[in-house]
């Protein structure tokens, strides 16, 4: 069903989630220092066991991250991010059946959602076909998020000379008492 984790992932226990701020400009297109994904000369043989291990590892890392909120909806994510500082983000289960996760981020224009694509044992931010070759791929979602956090913290275009602090934020249960939709 929409808004629920896949059956094989429902038994995973999740820690209390926390939202983390990103520096301003977190997801602006990076210029050219990163190497774009190279097309492979031979088609890769798909290995379901490798995919399962990769996805299981990602869920394990996300559980420990503190910013994985599980099966909340885009509307619930928007509600929580609306009152947070710019750059605050969370990772949640995607409600789209073709994607496992969505990154929800508070931007200067308000909260927005970016699907995280999984293919060939790698995760990348979803994008249109023209920019896809420039989007980097990562072995897990935590590495993807850490890359963009680090690149934004070092970005000279950022409004602040220092990376945004990581405030202690309330857990969703404190934020919305008794809301059964939250993990």
Automatic annotation (TrEMBL):
Q: Does Isomerase show up as a keyword for this record?
A: no
Question: By its UniProt entry, which InterPro entries does this protein fall under?
Answer: CIS_SH2, SH2, SH2_dom_sf
Which biological process annotations from GO are given for this protein? phosphatidylinositol phosphate biosynthetic process
GO CC: one term?
phosphatidylinositol 3-kinase complex
Task: State the PROSITE patterns in the record.
Answer: SH2
Keyword Acetylation assigned: no
**One Pfam short name:** SH2
Q: Native species of this protein? A: Neovison vison (American mink)
Q: Which domain of life is it from?
A: Eukaryota
Segments for region (Disordered): 153-183
Keywords, A to Z, come to: SH2 domain
Per the record, the gene is: G5E9R1
- The protein's name is Cytokine inducible SH2-containing protein
In this protein, which residues make up the domain named SH2?
Answer: 67-148
Q: Name one GO molecular function term.
A: 1-phosphatidylinositol-3-kinase regulator activity
